[in-house]
Amino acid sequence: LKMSCFWLYLPLHLLTATCLCYSIKAPTTSSQQSFNTNLFNFYHSLILPDGKETTVHLLTDIPKRYYFVLEEGRVLAPFSVTVTPCDVPIEWSILVYKSPPGKATPGDHDTQEISKSQKTPSMVSTIFNYKGNSVETYMGMSSHSAVYLLEFLSTERDTHITVYLTTDTTSGHVYPELPMDPRIDVIGIGHTTVTLTWKHSPSVLQHRENIQYCLLVNEKHNYKSLCAAETAIRSPGMKLPPTLALSLSPYLLEPQQVMILSNSELSIINKASSGEVRQVCMGTKNTYTVPNLSPSTQYYFDVFIVNLLTNASAAYTGTFARTLEEPEPKVTELKDGKVIHVVLDGKKQKFYSLQYQARHKKIHFTFQLCRGQIRVHITRNGKTVASENLSGLRYFSLKGKLLDTYLVQLRSTEESNSSVKVQASPHFHKPLFPLLPESLKIKSFSKLRTCRSVTIAWLGTQEESKYCVYRKRIEEDQIWRELQSTDSCSGPESRHKSDKVLCKYFYDLNLQRAVTTETIKGLEAGTFYLFDVYLFGPSGIPVRYHSKVVKTRKKC
To answer: Quick one: signal sequence residues (predicted)?
Structure first.
């Protein structure tokens, strides 16, 4: 039988060294081999600081160990260890080394005591073991004659965890407290919104100015800790401090991340490949409606209570909810030759649907853009036959079969309201709109301007048509607003009678010569005028040329 010792050097402020002694002989059982291994593990360990959260990086299948002891003079004291996995499940355990009662204890360096301790081997035992990815806390009573070893292992992949050891139970809760019922309740579900509520944390009532709730929304799964959530939304290879959800600073954001400040609530949207991940911190409010969700989609919701001073957090029990299916859009029936005026809400960005059943093989669709920007999508029996952004007047001539079903979908492509006139008819039907020239622009001649008159010109067609000219005096600061608010579908009936200048008929079979000019007299010097030309076809529905602003000369 042979006795052997390892000297375990503790922190300098403890001014002590611990001799781990055990008897060595040819091992006869697996328990003896395990005992020897545990002592070796104590010898190759790092110190775990008291009262400070420690980040531990783990390599796959390589255990990492930390130890701690109590300061000398404290016979019995409570302690707690909280471990937070930040990614995959891990294994961790707490082992304790104890000297038998009355034998050598840490700090007893007397040779006689060491000699006595050699007669009785010390004991190493496992007092706690856990495997998983939940936040776990172990609480126990520590003796000054014991040394504790924490061992961590990740078997799936490289990861990191946080460990918090404290022996001070008088300073209150470092981690925010959860209520007795930590569940998140879903109290409202809409097509694009979900309303959540949860019970207040006791920490909010005691330390309101230092506590806030943060909500995480994603389409994959719930997270058991804020650390795990931050790891999931952090891009690969991106080095960020662990306070992402707390600081929410713009310089932390990548191009695929969007920060939104609304109603004193700060949120980050991370546009990951697997879908959006949102972080929203809303202070101490315990009810929140999540906006701008997609219909018929399942979302997972996690609420974290965060201590802004210590960066410590606790997770409520996550929940999930599926938004309602979007109702089928209302479909308006198109009838042969009938004109429908459609106004689209740009803010809602929804499709307006029109349906037409063909009674002839050839179908003619006409669109007159009145205001804004509009996207049109036409399908025949479910297959796309046309899709583009509208501009001015647009015709689609399509050939199919009798009783084919056409679906026309219209959507505003800008936030302001847009409007369009739509007509569907057989190809041989009398055209709704007149034959149009190559351009609807009005030209003015600068050299022909005087203090009292201006000369304008516009293109005509090979078909004899009626053209009416209107003018309106405007101020310089009104020009942009007038041009932006112009409704291209409105006719002369919306104008004052005094705006009318003249009406005339003309055409030319040679398109190169189908141009007309008109000199408008009786104007005031140095004044801005808005000129409009309306073209009338056989159906009597006018087409408005693009408005033109001209200023008369100040001096002549």
So the answer is: 1-21
